[in-house]
Amino acid sequence: MTIPQFTELDRLGPSHSPREGARITNFLVHTQEGNGTAESLAAYLNNPSNGVSYHYTLRDGVAARVVPEELAAWSVLSANPFTVNLCFAGSRVAWSREQWLAIDGDLRIAAYLAVRSAHRHGYSTQVIAPPYHVAEGISDHNYVTRALGIGSHTDVGPNFPWDVFASHVAGFAGARPNAIDDRAAASPWLGARRTDGEIATPDGLGRFAEFEHGYVYWHPSTGAYAIPTAIMAKYAESGWEAGPLGYPIAEHAQLPDPRGTGPAVAQAFQGGAIYRRAGQPAYRVHGAIGERWRASGFENGELGWPASDEVAHDDGRYQEFEFGRIYWAPQQIIALRHSGDPDTPLDRPA
């Protein structure tokens, strides 16, 4: 993987201690809980009376080196002697996944600095994400709290995109990103792997791998999810991830079907959901018609299971269901239950 482009500045100061012979075993990332730049945060850390420091501060492609890695920074109490620490200037523990992904360039730089440090000092480049376990590798301040039992800090927070960060780390470490492997390991129903490694999707961002009974798709904004074979034919018909469905955003669910021949399956995607009853074709449900079907109680409501995809009709669209039909036109949506001629309109639930 190409080394990321960034500016590395020396802003070395006096806020450090000797390592006292301790071997470095972990690289840790932190949030600032403020709105500083890499340089303004470095200036604050260089005042020993503030009692805190990190080896690196990072923001907007600028990495400031505050403490040499040969010395201990003042970041994680009694874990200081065996850690290297980096703080994302301007970041907060309350950030959403989307806010973290908006600084993906800095995530890549942090991953590169972590791998560079690990190779320099001879410790593991494994990423130790929640739920934590005690090991050599790359993690965050919360690892020190939860796994090592030191202090009470929880940064970098619950929405940090560990899958994306781990992918960057793996790339710089010369290993295959493991988000797809992790999902496959958690989904033994997939069976034997058929793809050697991962295949890049045409958008250049996602990846997928084929298995005996399904596929695993990964994208940096959604994570990795498995799609069973029962749903893949419809997904392919819709254009895979490049079509209106986009990438999967959740694992599939098995749904009981007392009127069918076995359990049905459903899976959510960025652009709707696919539902398939056992022994029946699969159908896409989305948009305003999908919302109206949801309001009726999904497959357990008065309309039952989807029985078609959406069909163009005059200036709108409609979709067939097991016991009725939903019409959509601009500014209007109507659900009808089959009950002879005419059909019975369904009231929208309060």
Automatic annotation (TrEMBL):
Name the source's superkingdom: Bacteria
The biological process GO terms on file are: peptidoglycan catabolic process
Query: SUPFAM superfamilies annotated for this entry?
Result: N-acetylmuramoyl-L-alanine amidase-like
Q: Name one GO molecular function term.
A: N-acetylmuramoyl-L-alanine amidase activity
Q: Which Gene3D superfamilies match?
A: Peptidoglycan recognition protein-like
Q: What is the official name of this protein in its record?
A: N-acetylmuramoyl-L-alanine amidase domain-containing protein
What Pfam families is this protein classified in? Amidase_2 (PF01510), LGFP (PF08310)
Q: What SMART domains does this protein's entry cite?
A: Ami_2 (SM00644)
Q: Where is the N-acetylmuramoyl-L-alanine amidase domain?
A: 12-157
